[in-house]
Amino acid sequence: MTGTVPPSVDPAELRDVMDGRWASVRRDARENLDDPDFLPVYGETMQEARERVTRAATTLAGSGRVGFGFPKEFGGEADSGASVTSVEMLAFVDLSLMVKAGVQWGLFGGALELLGTSRHHERYLRDVMSFDLPGCFAMTETGHGSDVQQLRTTCTYDPATETFDLHTPHQAARKDYIGNAAKDGRMAVVFAQLITRGTNHGVHAWLVPIRNDDGTPCAGVTIGDDGPKAGLPGVDNGRLSFDHVSVPRAMLLDRYGQVAADGTYTSSIANETRRFFTMLGTLVRGRVSVGGAASSATKLALDIAVRYGDVRRQFAAPGEDREIVVNDYLVHQRKLLPALAKTYALHFAQGHLVETMHDVQTAVHVHGQEVDEDAQRELESRAAALKVAQTAHATATIQMCREACGGAGYLQENRLPHLKADTDVFTTFEGDNTVLLQLVAKGLLTGYRDTFGSLDGWGRVGFVADMVRETVLERTAARALIARLVDAVPGRDDEVPMLDRGWQLKMFEFREKHCLEGAIRRLRNNSATEGMAPFDVFNDVQDHVLKTAQTHIDRVVLEAFVAAVDRTEDPAARALLDRVCDLYALSTIEADKAWFLEHTQLTASRAKLLTATVNQLLRELRPHAVTLVDGFAIPPSWKAARILEEEPGRQEAMAARDAELRARNGQATPDGTATALEVPPAQ
Amino acid sequence: MTGTVPPSVDPAELRDVMDGRWASVRRDARENLDDPDFLPVYGETMQEARERVTRAATTLAGSGRVGFGFPKEFGGEADSGASVTSVEMLAFVDLSLMVKAGVQWGLFGGALELLGTSRHHERYLRDVMSFDLPGCFAMTETGHGSDVQQLRTTCTYDPATETFDLHTPHQAARKDYIGNAAKDGRMAVVFAQLITRGTNHGVHAWLVPIRNDDGTPCAGVTIGDDGPKAGLPGVDNGRLSFDHVSVPRAMLLDRYGQVAADGTYTSSIANETRRFFTMLGTLVRGRVSVGGAASSATKLALDIAVRYGDVRRQFAAPGEDREIVVNDYLVHQRKLLPALAKTYALHFAQGHLVETMHDVQTAVHVHGQEVDEDAQRELESRAAALKVAQTAHATATIQMCREACGGAGYLQENRLPHLKADTDVFTTFEGDNTVLLQLVAKGLLTGYRDTFGSLDGWGRVGFVADMVRETVLERTAARALIARLVDAVPGRDDEVPMLDRGWQLKMFEFREKHCLEGAIRRLRNNSATEGMAPFDVFNDVQDHVLKTAQTHIDRVVLEAFVAAVDRTEDPAARALLDRVCDLYALSTIEADKAWFLEHTQLTASRAKLLTATVNQLLRELRPHAVTLVDGFAIPPSWKAARILEEEPGRQEAMAARDAELRARNGQATPDGTATALEVPPAQ
What we know:
Shape of chain A: globular
Structural class of chain A: alpha+beta
Oligomer: homodimer
Number of strands of chain A: 13
Helix content of chain A: 40-55%
CATH superfamily of the domain at 435-630 in chain A: Butyryl-CoA Dehydrogenase, subunit A, domain 3
CATH architecture of the domain at 435-630 in chain A: Up-down Bundle
Strand content of chain A: 5-15%
Region (Disordered) (chains A, B): 649-683
Subcellular location (chains A, B): Peroxisome
Largest sheet of chain A: 6 strands, mixed
Pfam families (chains A, B): ACOX, ACOX_C_alpha1, Acyl-CoA_dh_M
Cofactor (chains A, B): FAD
Number of helices of chain A: 22
Radius of gyration of chain A: 27 Å
Protein name (chains A, B): acyl-CoA oxidase
């Protein structure tokens, strides 16, 4: 849309567009986050990693960078967006430290702040912030990960002693995968079924001491160690079981539900399910942080792979006195560049999400306004959507980058193994991605109006059909701009140039609406089918429903990217981002080409043109690949990848190799270029 | 084709079909491969892992199970197929041990045997087999992984001293990622450019001592350590550099090229490139072994994920007093079952490959027949193809299984992290998969007739167009059976039932032929384009060329599966395998649905029917999921996964949970089923 890309684009301009509203937090981190304990140490044992990361967390607490999210009266900044941005930056440095910090100040501290009341804040919050009180967020049980409303741990009130009895009824009910539990945690926010006067009021949270001052477990508490994991060696995940542990009444985090001395239960929210999800909803920041951290790791992996591919030679060019660097191969470009484009797209979508989250949370927690339920549900759905997109993209992209670096990518000294192993759990923690996709789908299907509807309600979805168009179109960034672009699409769809942004947007919108309408129709038909079990009504179309969520995510992300291009002022940077946006849009359509063909949005010849257009974009963007990773502005000292270090004599060695090649080509040697299509075993 | 699947199928029948020609080797391993050092130890340090695996390799040598591939006069069995089968079995136990064994007896021992002559055999082979002489296969250089014909290490003959001078000219020429180098290796087979009388005769191999008896490096040899890797902690990969190391003339492995005392070079193969690839071709067993080992790891991962998914409960079924196990979800089935089907398909393709390899190698190395060049090239291409298919499938499937097991899948105690990390390098070692795909494509494009043609030759591909049909159709397992099935397809393609095996085969064949013809046409057009650089002639269509190779692999695999179903005698097992074969065929077509739509092999309505048919197959196969992993016949003692252990009181706990659920549903609690579409944060 904005013309050709000039040969040279200033990466600082890209960085400035990407830095966005919390640019100062990013700058501060780049300049000052440099403690030697912060970087991963390759080959350290699990014990060494845990000790280093505990030290690093203490250092981090002392730096004042953990308080962004906490209330000002406790020395925080009450700046939710800064808090998430800070986690994103920490994720570049060491993911164990990022997760440890997330557990301490996000989950444990966040629950204490948001589910507790002033007496909890006054007594504990300063020690939480200083890391003098390391804590856990003990929700997940071995037998219940995703369905936490069905947790089996019970906490039963006894008016005679004015205490709760916290109990783990069987092994599947033990708390599992709990960060900070195996080594450091002194207290835990424990989630359990609140039972008083013989009635279960659903899941609530208590602040429970788990270790004595000497480090031994408190009476009745059994602490286990999850032991070594695929990654995150510095995070001490463990297991907690409670054998009738006595918990004082005051330790109930009672913002949303209170138990009087005599055992009377009160709450401002009558419906138990609604209350529970309101409590959970306050903790949305954790999910936003995990998505952002996944993107940081993805950027670093791409930074390494793109730079390596720009100097790594593989085969000699036929008939030429040079070897080709791997970034020059079309298939290598097909691996790296669409992933790079999607990383930019997700960055801008994350930026938009963080702004939304900040505004919603600031209204409630800083300005004391009433919760806007629609806005809150919308935020939770968007957070789930982007967590899924960013973590799935991280898993796929970091894997691809590892492979793109060959044997070098398999060595820990080149960072990629740590990035892969550490982020691997992101797709299944803070909400399993498949389950989160269902959450997103539910939001779409009900338009947030039937917020707490049951699964049975899927059988009664007829009424939502009318809102499909409205709900799909009302929720987006930069609506006016998008509408203008879509309306400007000239002529018939199958004649429009593929680089027309309006056409791209139309394709994304059409697919989402069509999927959603189809899902609703199929659910309605199933529910009208006699004898079909309620589970099967839904399960029969689960793949369709999840695809609908995925198409929604794709559109939200594209719209965020379009808005970002629009606000880019530097003409060169804008032209480049515009092309990158084209690549994101067209490679996303290409990846789901079957759907567009099946639904007559692409003819066969246009489908072939699509592939050719993507290849053309790759050729155009290839010279800018390094500029695009420069735009991530990752400080070299954070990368800790040996292959990025200029080896002494490297240039001389390259020159020597070229000279040898010339000599060999000049000799009466056999045709060396045959090797471009041959390959030996390698070990 | 063979009717409905009975409710119960005996997994022993599946096992017997899968065990194939080397069933006795598999049985022996299952019964006797049980040394405590063989299993991975979770949380061990790299040093501990290396020491354990060295011990285990010694134990393995003592067991007599490493000699299958060696000549009978040295105590081996001259049984190439048994050798690969034995590696496949070892891969279930510990992949570090499998790779260590592969380096010692496959690469090092194999090169010594196949590139050396009797004086090398007599002097060293017994010590190699007993592990008294640990050795390395030093081919790959830091700067040259894939293009080993361009290795920079030189070995220059001096008639005055009758020695070679082995030299590493610069750092990019050091040998890298070399197994056995960092700790154990005493000698190495080193690949270098052979120069004598001022002429470079291309890459040859020498047997070179690298460590003295006291473990110190030999004079002039610098040994480095690659340090910790993503996985394979028990393999001591390292780096070797040579500073003008003197190597006696007799240490040249001289089966394919000899240097006389006066420096005269002789060889039975005049063309240097052809000689080099003949030498490499003898080492094809390594690539076949890696593919087979990848499949073993895949089977184990699926075994764990399928069994876990059969007991893991997630949400309550709406309106029912039970929780659904995750294997009951359509989307979970969509993850596990097509991967399971493809694993069966690849198993049978690997079985066919191993038989072919065995027959080709036995003819030459045991019966002393002339090399059948066509058969050898065909074998190398097939080995490359299946290595790509099996290792890519392993990477994707083990990742999926990890995620399917949620947090439990992230704990080392549940084995999946080791399987993922250890196999990760398989896609890029023993030939990078992208480069191997090019090798496969070259075979298809030239019909093996222009075996050593250069890349420039791509411009002269016109002559091969005529052979496309012939070469595509002539190379396959069970040709007569396949032809009969294809010929029997009734009526028009768009009316044939999708479970018709002939139709499935036709679709695979059509796609391969069409891709191949298109690639040839585009290459021809490019080469006729004036001013197009030779590199661009090829690079412009690289994606198309690699896709062609992929479609070829898919067909070869399907045909092997079809042949295996055909030879299954037990009717129940046959009916089940037939359905699994349908799922492999249709999910493969579904994954590339865009292509079939674009090329009018599927109408839009048939494309939708395809998805519905795959879903129907999933429903049919779901009750047999555990039977299908039982068919892999992996001994429980090899699995080393805590989640597969029956926990004490598990059944009681499940019953208790169901009772609680009933009680809650009976209570006046809110609608708990809403949670099926909600999800909390989890940490």
